Amino acid sequence: MSFPLASTVGPSAYWYLTRATGTMALILLTLSVVLGVIDVERYSTTRWPRFLIDSAHRTVSLLAVAFLVVHIVTAALDSFASIPLVDAVVPFVGSYRPLWLGLGAASFDLIMAVVITSLARRRLGYRTWRLTHWLAYASWPIALLHGLGTGSDVKASWMIAITGGCLAAVLFAVFLRVASGGPGEFGLRATAVGFAVCFAAGVALWLPSGPLGAGWARRSGTPSSLLRPTTARAPG
């Protein structure tokens, strides 16, 4: 499904909305993951009761989903690159940066699985819901790679700062959770720390030759028709 009437509003408006909502979705998703990883409910007090903290976590998560939906819709509405709406839910089928756009679709699918199972939590049972809820953590690194691979602002200093801040926040949350874990969880804690550190290091090593390097737009799979020098919004 595509939206040929996008020009009635102006593709630049959709383009800016896509960039802004994508950035906000990443920030909110990071905050949601951080709150979940550190299990912030354990720090409840009489001033900040458990139900209030839980409500804040839920609100942040819903806001992340809302911004994500707007991000997807505006990307489909923008006439600059042909991104059918189906590409947002079916990974790796598009023609525009298929790998990196596909990662975004995969992340969205994981998040929606969490949302749907949360709505049906009473019928599924706590154990099934809890196992599915872990998909939210898996969606975060995938979403981060999607943003780095497709984002037109990836080389901007403010975007680099946001990405670094999101990585640092998740790393801090993982270390904090590990430090407060019991001795019987050593294997799981070591795995979590190892994955978090390796992912952050891998991103840092990949960026200079990847999205921050020359010719990334072409190497990432941007159609040749969008790589003309006259293109006002040349991606990457």
Description:
- With 236 residues, the chain is mainly α.
- Helices cover 65% and strands 0% of the residues.
- 29% of the residues are buried.
Mean pLDDT: 83
Shape: globular
Distance between the termini: 25 Å
Roughly how many Å is the radius of gyration? 19 Å
Low-confidence stretches: 1-11
Sheet/helix structural class: mainly alpha
User: How big a fraction of the residues is strand?
Assistant: under 5%
Total DSSP E strands: 0
Which H/E pattern describes the elements? Answer: HHHHHHHHH
By DSSP (H or I, 4+ residues per run), the number of helices equals 9
Q: Work out the helicity level.
A: 55-70%
**Major sheet summary line:** none
Question: Tags for this entry?
Answer:
mainly alpha; 0% strand; 236 residues; 9 helices
In brief, what are we looking at here?
The chain has helices spanning 11-37, 50-77, 98-119, 121-124, 126-133, 135-150, 157-179, 186-206, 216-219. With 236 residues, it is mostly helical.
List the helices and strands and how they pair.
Blueprint: H1 11-37, H2 50-77, H3 98-119, H4 121-124, H5 126-133, H6 135-150, H7 157-179, H8 186-206, H9 216-219
